[in-house]
Amino acid sequence: MSFHVLVPDNVHQSAIDRLRAQKGIRVSAPGKLERADLLSAVADVHALIIRSGVAADAELLDAANELRAIARAGVGVDNVDLAAATARGVVVMNTPGGNTISTAEYTLGLMLALARHIPQGHASLAAGRWDRKRFGGVELRGKTLGIIGLGRIGQAIALRAQAFEMSVVAHDPYLPPEIAQGLAVPLLGLEEVYAQADFLSLHALISHETRGMINAGSIARMKDDVRIINAARGALINEADLADALQSGRVAGAALDVYAQEPPPPDNPLLGLPNVIHTPHLAASTADAQVTVAVEAAQLILDFLLDGKVANTCN
């Protein structure tokens, strides 16, 4: 039997090559498709490999009559309607380890840039100014990093922050305590993390409980001059509330790689604030990570279609 695999997004060529090298697999890899073209293309597809830019919602699932599996080349599956996939018997899998190090390193980079005003200093000098006094910063050593979500990425960040002689505390209601103990990271209640953190890094999944969790109420319970880093999901933050706190000085700064709407619209209240560092969803964008997640996603699909094996299931 021949299986049709569609890759309607830009994934590394090594994944396409791995699929095409396997007998019984027909691959369509047109790159990123417009929505109407995508809905037409999925009609006879047995498997999809997607990234964050493809919405595998109920409409798409209804159009994919033969679909059996979706592999997400990356971690987050908030762009997949898991309930609809489950109802239709479609297995959803992800590649949770592939971009762990890239995202962890990027988060530390954002933290350092935020502490020392590195982007602002660069922009000032590039504009012909010499503002040494204006951009005084703070050290990471001796500060407390609060991590919300101590999964693979959170754990990698904790180890690297400890190398900077930071104290690390975390909140994760789903993590086995022995894992946190092995990292020498106390697992605390959310309110305790808010109260202790000088830097707060977000690594939670989007859920009813976490959506908009950084808001006026939670910010009021944080330390004065807290600095917030988000390289996870933009919807974790109420952007209007964070903008107000940054403008008032209640929050000293924020470094944001993700946004509730991407790209952020021109009226996003965080754009243009001098104490915010913005990047366009780059945390996992290393050559190393893109190869790894693409190849892992391809192998998940091959194992499922050819051998019936399932791994890293999300539904």
Detail the topology: elements first, then pairings:
Layout: E1 3-6, H1 13-20, E2 25-28, H2 35-41, E3 47-50, H3 58-63, E4 69-72, H4 82-87, E5 91-94, H5 100-116, H6 118-126, E6 144-148, H7 152-163, E7 167-171, H8 177-182, H9 190-196, E8 199-202, H10 216-220, E9 226-230, H11 239-248, E10 251-256, E11 276-278, H12 287-307
Parallel strand pairs: 1-2, 1-3, 3-4, 4-5, 6-7, 6-8, 8-9, 9-10, 10-11
Helix pairs in contact: 1-12, 5-7
Q: What is the multimeric organization of the chains shown?
A: single chain
Indicate the structural class. Answer: alpha/beta
CATH class of the largest domain equals Alpha Beta
What is the correct CATH architecture of the largest domain? 3-Layer(aba) Sandwich
How far apart the termini lie comes to: 26 Å
In which order are the strands of the major sheet placed?
Answer: 7-6-8-9-10-11
**What is the share of helical residues?**
25-40%
Order of helices and strands: EHEHEHEHEHHEHEHHEHEHEEH
Overall number of structural domains:
2
Describe the structure.
Helices cover about 35% and strands about 15% of the residues. The protein contains 12 helices and 11 strands. The strands form 2 sheets. A 6-stranded parallel β-sheet has the order 7-6-8-9-10-11, with helices on both faces. It has a 5-stranded parallel β-sheet with strand order 2-1-3-4-5. The longest helix is centred in the last third of the chain and has 21 residues. The mean pLDDT is about 95.
